[in-house]
Design goal:
By secondary structure, the protein is of the alpha+beta class. The chain has 8 helices and 17 strands.
Length: 342
């Protein structure tokens, strides 16, 4: 799941990180994190990545997911098997499902010390575009064959996949595109970004002294946080569209925005109203939906304000006859400052 904040101004070199962005990574006060800037001619926005995992393990991180029938001690057996294969578990989540009959297990694993004839070594895997841990998959399947839930009567619910978000960052590091990583500590919901990070970001934006703003996206599943940077009033806009839900309406809204020459950087559709304008607050129900969009105008001049771009989208939505009766309303998404920790 991707969890995002709205744009906030970067105060000097201090980035305010809301609680909902910190929580999936367990970023309490004093947590050590690692950050690196992705500035290799991005067609969208310059960004940095932030994670609690050190860069030397980014190249061989894997997610292991399995659904098994509930059985006392089974989770310990799974972790014990992986330990014996020198697979180091960095994060683990499990929960009972289906009224307690099924147990879903999700693991993040460092596989640098794992090797087999078929899966090779970490050095060999690092040279492959799409490596697979087929031996490990087969070993898990054979060991727990009686415990697995089968999706179609033939295939166990077992998946082993590389975390490509980390792998791509590692490859950029190795090629020199990413530069070096920096070691940081988060305190009071704030992350201090040193010059080693901020100067390349400002240079990428062409704004060595201008105020810049940041949007935070947290991937709760892969435990990684991305921070996107932009200058105010330069064609990048974060909006929320509220509307009475019907199956065809989301596609229609996106088509209208596409015709207005906006590229979609990030989108999220959810049932119900999320921070709606005052005229819709009494109507909070599943009849409505919210479409959260981060957009980049493909032809906007550098002087175009956020309000100007909002007016363009609002005009397109209100003049589209197919949206009549669906109460389509659009607003700029606003940043809510995080509370300071004690």
């Amino acid at each position: 799941m991707l969890i995002q904040s709205s744009f906030s101004m970067v105060q000097g070199s201090v980035l305010h990180v809301p609680l909902w962005n910190r929580a999936p990574l367990n970023l309490s006060a004093g947590t050590r994190v690692f950050a690196a800037a992705l500035l290799d001619d991005s067609p969208v926005l310059p960004e940095i990545v932030v994670t609690t995992f050190p860069p030397d393990i980014w190249g061989d991180l894997w997610r292991i997911e399995l659904d098994v029938y509930q059985s006392p001690g089974l989770l310990a057996q799974v972790l014990g098997l992986l330990r014996d294969q020198r697979v180091h578990i960095l994060a683990a989540e499990s929960t009972a499902l289906d009224a307690g009959h099924v147990h879903a297990i999700s693991l993040l694993a460092d596989c640098r010390d794992y090797a087999s004839n078929g899966d090779l070594t970490t050095d060999a895997r690092s040279q492959m575009q799409r490596p697979e841990l087929r031996d490990l998959h087969a070993y898990l399947a054979a060991t727990f064959i009686k415990d697995f839930v089968f999706a179609n009567g033939e295939t166990p619910r077992l998946r082993v996949r590389r975390l490509y978000s980390y792998y791509r960052c590692r490859e950029r590091l190795r090629s020199g595109e990413l530069g070096s990583t920096v070691d940081l500590v988060i305190n009071n919901g704030e992350l201090f970004l040193p010059d080693a990070i901020m100067e390349p970001v400002r240079d990428s934006l062409g704004a060595p002294a201008d105020p810049i703003r940041a949007m935070i996206l947290t991937d709760s599943k892969d435990r990684i946080m991305r921070v996107l940077f932009s200058l105010p009033n330069t064609g990048v806009i974060h909006i929320r569209v509220f509307f009475r839900y019907a199956v065809h309406v989301p596609a229609l809204i996106l088509s209208i925005i596409d015709q207005a020459s906006f590229d979609i950087i990030r989108s999220q559709l959810r049932q119900g109203l999320f921070r709606p304008p005052s005229n819709l607050r009494p109507a909070i129900s599943t009849e409505y939906a919210t479409l959260d969009l981060l957009l980049k105008n493909l032809y906007a001049e550098s002087t175009a304000s956020d309000q100007d771009l909002l007016a363009v989208i609002r005009s397109r939505l209100t003049t589209t006859q197919e949206l009549n009766g669906y109460d389509a309303t659009v607003e700029l998404a606003k940043f809510i400052p995080p509370k300071r920790e004690a």
